[in-house]
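Q&A log
Question type: sequence-to-structure
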Amino acid sequence: MEWVNFAAVNHPIKSALISVFYKDGLDAVVQSLHKHGVTLYSTGGTRAFIENLGIPCVAVEDITGYPSILGGRVKTLHPKVFGGILARRELDQDMQEIAQYEIPLYDLVMVDLYPFDETVANGGTEQEIIEKIDIGGVSLIRAAAKNHAYTTIIAHKDFYKPFLQQYEAGNGALSLEQRKSFAAKAFAVTAQYDGSIGAWFAGEKTYSLRYGENPHQKGIFKGNLEAIFKKHQGKELSYNNLLDVESAVSLIREFDTKAGATFVIIKHNNACGVATRSTVHQAWTDALACDPVSAFGGILATNATIDLATAQEINNLFFEVLLAPSYDADAITLLQSKPNRIIIETLGDWPVATTQRRTILNGELIQDRDSSMEGRENMQCVTSVQPSEEQLADLEFALKIAKQTKSNTIVLAKNQQLLASGTGQTSRVDALQQAIEKANRFGFELQGAVMASDAFFPFPDCVEIADKSGIQAVVQPGGSIKDQASVDYCNNNDMAMVITGVRHFKH
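Response status: OK
Response body:
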């Protein structure tokens, strides 16, 4: 047996075990390996593919002494396969056992996995899906990746091309750094694969969306919509629909039904209409009044039963999605008169993820969900003027909306109705001025209104602008080194200010 110096920078590939489901691009790799004199081992369809290229290939069953059995469920699970992958070639004991049991060593393992996600997405039966749970493939990949000091692992068809480039550039050899890089990719492949399987067993589904955020982007959703929604009618929810639905549900959950019926209207993840009233009909009317222009094509959500009177008013508006905990029979009949509308019944108060994830740069950001919501018991008055009971109720109302609005944001409210908000602005002053201009444009009287800010005021300019517009009470988290300047302005101009100590940035 020939011994190899593994302290060398590059490790030449002299033998390869290849067993793949996807064969696109495999021919170029196989031909290059053959050109460099690599001995190829394979199974089933992959072996036939290689031999059809006119390249010799050793059948794995000739090594193990066992054919593929159980309908292909067991092909490579054998010591003569895994021993050749996992052997530590600098250890005499390992190499003596390799020689004793006549186990071939494998310098390269090319194995991919059965198309589990694709089978689920294509609506496969339970048995079809279970048969696409790869056992041998995952084991081979993990074994080769673990032993990357000696073995190169190629675990996905997307890695064929970069492997071939590195292999040719290295004249038939890869460095330890390159092998380790492919090992990292391999473990990522198996982690994602096992995650998909675990999610499927837990009831999670994969939904193929029409497209992503834009038509040129692909999109899928992983979850179980049927567990939380009953869809009465309408087209499939799109990527953007789902983002807006998430925003609508997150906001409506901030409101207790004991306070009355609340209606929210969402556009591009931000509220353009919110109102709480004693009846769902009045809540809808006053939510729509906030911004009837932006409401066109929006996402509507309420925490109350939709009755016929409310449905008749909603029926006059073009909207994408309507969510409610229940509908009266005559109301749902009317709302279904236009078939493309998505009419959803929300099914209880389901648990939400406690963490949020976002991919950025070459990694992932993970944070706790913002589950804090400050009520009047968390509001410390820092001014000589105390807010009235009505103002406290409006400050709580406005703060709920601010928490669920893109930063920087300022929310103006009065009598449990959103008057206007400044959303996603680069300065707090711009957000406030946007809100004031919008409220004036839609004819709202700001005298006696309240203002909520998602973050502190670095200068007193915002409270001064608010005061001159008629706003009389403010809620903000506090924390600026110039907090006192804003407090002093409020004291000098008979405004009430409360601070919560909790910031609610949302990006």
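Response note: The mean pLDDT is 92.
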